[in-house]
Amino acid sequence: MFGKLCGIDEAGRGPIAGDLVMAGCILNLQVEGLNDSKKLSEKKREALYELIIKAASFHIVKFSPKEIDDNGISICLKRGLQEIMKNLKCEEYLFDGNSNFGVSGLPTMVKADGKVAEVSAASILAKVTHDRDILIEAKKYPEYQFEKHKGYGTALHVEMIKKYGYCEIHRRSYKLKALEPTLF
Q1: What span, in angstroms and rounded, lies between the C-alpha atoms of 169 and 5?
Q2: How many whole angstroms separate alpha carbon 145 and alpha carbon 100?
Q3: Which of 11, 120, 137, 180 is 20 to 30 A from residue 3's alpha carbon, by CA?
Q4: What are phi and psi of 147, to 5 degrees?
Q5: Which pTM does this prediction carry?
Q6: Is 159 annotated as a binding-site member?
Q7: What integer pLDDT is reported at residue 3 of this predicted model?
Q8: Whole-angstrom Cα distance, residue 151 to residue 170?
Q9: Do the strands 5-11 and 92-96 form a parallel or antiparallel pair, or are they unpaired?
Q10: Is 96 marked as binding a ligand?
């Protein structure tokens, strides 16, 4: 029976730039081919995204780099989980990972995004939303080449920060050893 479980996942917890995106998803119809978004090609994620939004009830929450810097990633995750649970009513919830960030009544499961269809669907909604948003930012800040690294702290991204400094979508609370001044 569909509609009994709301799967929840996030994308963009680790990058040093861009939004944290969280998605909750209740499947009303079966969607074939679901899996952990990281295990799918961009083309496959995009195709599944379109199927999911037609076959599901969902809620997407975004936290800006400023919100992450001001509140911390854990507080943002907790608020996102609470907002999803408030907006998507169902019998059960399941969050991918090993922490519910203090949200009572929220079970977790490591690698649920590859095991549970609703969490896989949430994973895809969050990842596609995150990646689409970062591509918009890439047009505003072409010098950082966000389209290549999606905001993650790759060698290329670190080199661009060294060259141009931080821009508006960087998380300043995320410290990178490669950007710290050396003492010698």
Answers
A1: 34
A2: 34
A3: 11
A4: -65, -20
A5: 0.94
A6: no
A7: 55
A8: 8
A9: parallel
A10: yes
The verdict on whether residue 10 carries a ligand-binding annotation is yes
* Structure tokens, 75: 């507080």
Sequence-ordered list of residues with C-beta below 8 angstroms from that of 58, at least 6 positions apart, any chain = 23, 24, 25, 26, 52, 88, 121, 122, 125
Kindly state the percentage of the chain with pLDDT values over 90: 92
150-162 pLDDT, tens digit per residue, is 999 999 999 999 9
Q: Give the angle 51-145-13 at the CA atoms, nearest 5°.
A: 55
Q: Which residues contact 69 (CB under 8 A, 6 or more apart)?
A: 171, 172, 173
Confidence of residue 103 (pLDDT cuts 50, 70, 90): very high
As a dihedral over the C-alpha atoms of residue 48, residue 52, residue 53, residue 58, rounded to 10 degrees, the angle is: -130
User: Could you tell me the domains of the chain?
Assistant: 5-179 (3.30.420.10)
Quote the DSSP letter at residue 85. Answer: H
**For residue 122, which amino acid is it?**
A
Residue pair 87/156 in contact by the 8 Å Cβ criterion = no
176 pLDDT more than 90 = no
Contact assessment for residue 88 and residue 6, using Cβ atoms and an 8 Å cutoff: yes
Q: What does the block give as tokens for 120?
A: 């896989």
Coil, strand or helix at 15? coil
